Amino acid sequence: QVQLVESGGGVVQPGGSLRLSCVASGFTFNNHAMHWVRQAPGKGLEWVAAISHDGSNKFHADSVTGRSTISRDNSKKTLYLQMNSLTAEDTAVYYCARDRDHLLRFFYMDIWGKGTPVTVSS
Amino acid sequence: DIQMTQSPSSVSASVGDRVTITCRASQGISNWLAWYQQKPGKAPKLLIYAASNLHGGVPSRFSGSGSGTHFTLTISSLQPEDFATYYCQQANSFPPTFGQGTKVDIK
Predict the structure, then answer these.
(1) Which end of chain B lies in a sparser environment, N or C, as judged by fewer CB atoms within 10 Å?
(2) Which residues are CB-neighbours of A12 under 8 A, at least 6 positions away?
(3) What are the pLDDT digits (tens) for B36-73?
(4) Ramachandran region, residue B70 (left: φ > 0; alpha: ψ -120 to 50; beta: rest)
(5) Which of B49, B86, B88 has the highest number of chain A CBs within 10 A, making it the mutation to test binding with A?
(6) How far is the alpha carbon of B94 from chain A, nearest alpha carbon, in Å?
(7) Distance between CA atoms of residues B2 and B74, nearest Å
(8) Looking at chain B, which residue has its C-alpha nearest residue A45?
(9) Is A100 on the interface with B (CB under 8 A)?
(10) In A, which residues are within 8 Å of B52 by CB distance?
(11) Average pLDDT score over residue span A10-21
(12) To the nearest whole number, what is the mean pLDDT of chain B?
């Protein structure tokens, strides 16, 4: 079935780095743009980054620009989020989500993974 | 960035009730709006896209309307599985932004 499975979360010290991964199955991965969305404990949803189907276009939220990079490997059907210089404000569950479109013309996220938790703490 | 404001923040309702949630955008977004449902400890699920289009598999008791800056999500007859938090999201421009959420709980 159509599925996204995130991994790579965990506990990291302030200033540290993590690389999150999201493996897709059950659909043609390179036909879809992809997103990362996060949710801090007890809070709402915050979009983090997006990438077009072929990786040629990338967008990042101001809150992570310069510290995080979205990428994808279509041969491995995998989406990544490299996060550096982490702070307590980055503590959240990180979801990957599939876009209905391939070119990021609109941002409707129709399939979501279960999320991977990231805790930034000393 | 476009700000999305939902009201109410929470609503208590009974099974069978009609529930309406409102979402307002800080500037016009045409019909570039989605609604999501999220249950505790679970990922969000897409309910509606383009303001009024029902995503596949979503029950017809859910409906969306609106354009410009004012949008509504209506649940025509609340079912036990509908108790959850609902988010609107503008899809008009980067960055996509979400409303703060509306929690629908049991009266």
Answers:
(1) C
(2) A18, A86, A118, A119, A120
(3) 999 999 999 999 999 999 999 999 999 999 999 999 99
(4) beta
(5) B49
(6) 8
(7) 23
(8) B98
(9) yes
(10) none
(11) 97
(12) 97
> Which residue reads 């025509």 in tokens?
B76
Mutation choice for B interface testing from A39, A109, A110, A114 by most B CBs within 10 A: A109
* Interatomic CA distance for residues B51 and B89, integer angstroms: 10
Nearest-neighbour CA in chain B from A54: distance (Å): 19
Distances (CA, A) of B25 to A43, A61, B9, B33, B69: 20, 19, 16, 9, 5
Q: Which residues of A touch B46 (CB under 8 A)?
A: 108-110
- Taking CB atoms and an 8 Å cutoff, what residues of chain B touch A37? 44
Please report the pLDDT score of residue B77 as a whole number: 96
pLDDT at B96 over 90: yes
* Stretch A78-99: mean pLDDT: 98
Sheet holding B70-75: strands in order across?
A: B4-7, B19-25, B70-75, B62-67
Query: Tokens at residue A80, please?
Result: 């990544």
Instruction: Enter the tokens of residue A17.
Output: 């780095």
Q: Looking up tokens 């969000």, which residue turns up? A: B44
Bridge partners, residue B88, by sequence:
B35
